[in-house]
């Protein structure tokens, strides 16, 4: 099995620009985390531990998110200084690899294939280049690929293709030495200028799969990913909740300073009871600078939370920890959201907590920024108001209240 991969992650996302802005297309958020993370997770789960990300447009967004190590895999960056197109990007990245054969994927496409099966096919045919093909009902959007006994014989353009058939699924296994010997320009299209002329030649093969496939290049499929990924790939086990505006009524310009000022939002208590069945751990994290301002005491806050927890327990719910930061905003505390100090404290108290399997539900930009900083998925409580653009860019699921989110979870179970 190959141990190295290249992911093409330099897309501009022009067709998604009015839906998702300010990030490369592979970083478009889907159910609270970048689409690219799902692609990388599939590779890691298949045993690949060294991944080169071929980046270009807004490369720093990708580098800041994944760093040099992500979920146990080494991440290396092959940055385009000038546009190299798909072929040039693959060749440049190949110089950073050591393996005889490596896999290439598109960062804006998820094709849930058996990588071992593709590798075994490639090896059995002593291929230079193998493609994972996807069987579809209508090839008109993509163009089709013809294969005879596994050997690629022809490509048909979109305008020439219709009806059921195989398309290029965007996953390749490539022999590194063979690739680096090809007489190609610095910038070229891998698909049009290398693969298509190779059709019918020795060493070029394709294997058809019928596994889950999605390309988020157009808005309709981007929104389809939003609907489907929560069920298919997101198995959150730990839930972080903001307090004011999510559990109880937010008091603009004021603080809940005693229990008489507390007002549960509709259906929150039965929702918490249902969520207690769904999540291993549930935490409340809340900025409470009313204490820091001297408007209430820590004892007042503890008393409020004691009554809150009693109500939740009486309704059949469970909260495993309540974490608050009473520092003033201008103190820039490492515990105050959007910093992640409260989440780190929860993790110290409950070492099994994994932020990659965690979800944050909040009603402010600060809550969403907190989730991003901790690399959690994020859900925004919109209260039926339009979602601000800066919030939309860092979360992609919104509900009017906690009860609506809870109902969605029950529908997906």
Architecture overview:
The protein is an alpha/beta fold. The chain has 2 domains: 4-228, Alpha-Beta Complex (Spore Coat Polysaccharide Biosynthesis Protein SpsA, Chain A), CATH 3.90.550; 238-412, Rossmann fold (3-Layer(aba) Sandwich). The chain has helices spanning 35-45, 59-66, 85-94, 115-124, 176-180, 190-198, 219-232, 268-278, 289-292, 298-314, 341-349, 365-374, 389-392, 402-412; strands at residues 4-8, 29-30, 33-34, 50-55, 69-70, 73-79, 101-106, 109-111, 129-136, 144-148, 151-156, 165-175, 204-209, 213-215, 238-241, 281-287, 321-325, 358-362, 377-381, 397-399. The strands form 5 sheets. Strands 5-6-4-1-7-12-9-13 form an 8-stranded mixed sheet, with helices on both faces. Strands 17-16-15-18-19-20 form a 6-stranded parallel sheet. The chain has a two-stranded antiparallel ribbon with strand order 2-3. Strand 2 (29-30) and strand 3 (33-34) form a beta hairpin. Helix 3 crosses helix 6 and helix 8 runs parallel beside helix 14 (402-412). It is elongated and about 80 Å long. The two termini are 34 Å apart.
Number of strands: 20
Please give the oligomerization state of what you see.
Answer: single chain
What is the mean predicted local confidence, pLDDT? 90
Query: Number of helical segments?
Result: 14
Amino-to-carboxy terminus distance: 34 Å
Structural class, from secondary structure content? alpha/beta
Largest sheet: number of strands, sense, barrel closure: 8 strands, mixed
The CATH top-level class label of the largest domain: Alpha Beta
- Identify low-pLDDT runs: none
Strand order of the largest sheet: 5-6-4-1-7-12-9-13
Secondary-structure arrangement, i.e. CATH architecture of the largest domain: Alpha-Beta Complex
Alpha carbon gyration radius:
25 Å
Determine the CATH superfamily of the largest domain.
Spore Coat Polysaccharide Biosynthesis Protein SpsA, Chain A
Strand content: 15-25%
Fraction of helical residues: 25-40%
What is the count of distinct domains? 2
Q: Output the CATH topology of the largest domain.
A: Spore Coat Polysaccharide Biosynthesis Protein SpsA, Chain A
Broad shape: elongated
